[in-house]
Amino acid sequence: LDLGYVAFYAVGAYAIGWFASDHFAKVNGGEGIHIGASEFASNTPGIHLNFLMIILLAMMLAALAGAIIGLPTLRLRGDYIAIVTLAFGEIIGRVFANGDEITIFGDNKLSNGRQSISPIDQINLPIFGEFDSATDLRPYYWCVLALCLVVLFVNFRLRDSRLGRAWIALREDEVAAASMGVPLVKTKL
Predict the structure, then answer these.
(1) Which of 113, 115, 171, 179 has the maximal Cβ count within 10 Å?
(2) Residue 102 φ/ψ, nearest 5 degrees
């Protein structure tokens, strides 16, 4: 039982806040970094990346956070892993809530504390252009639906892979999986 999923959601949410807003306004001498951003976002300070690039960065940051959180919990089972992962979820929330006291990249803050990060850029996809939330919310619906379908596709393919079968074997019975040659630490991590 893993109760620490909120930590990965927070890392992904802050990734889009860091890379699609003027949060790091002092970067690059106050001119910012703009890669694949819309015309409006290209004229503002901060880091402004394309939405698809941010998704990849968020996945990598969440995977790194998962490895960091997963290392100390590898040997735990049952109620103990539930308690520890719940604690990690709460710790991540406290770190970002107090992020205005943590400086990174010079004098930039991790977050703005309880005020969080300023508004993020509109989604700007290469084929569809920039979404407009003021007039039409349908593009957001189709974008989220497409992302859900991609996640389902990846999950089904991963479940049917060799690693997915090893995960299922570990979930059902760790001792039997270890006796069949599944490397426990490597597979869990």
Answers:
(1) 113
(2) -110, 120
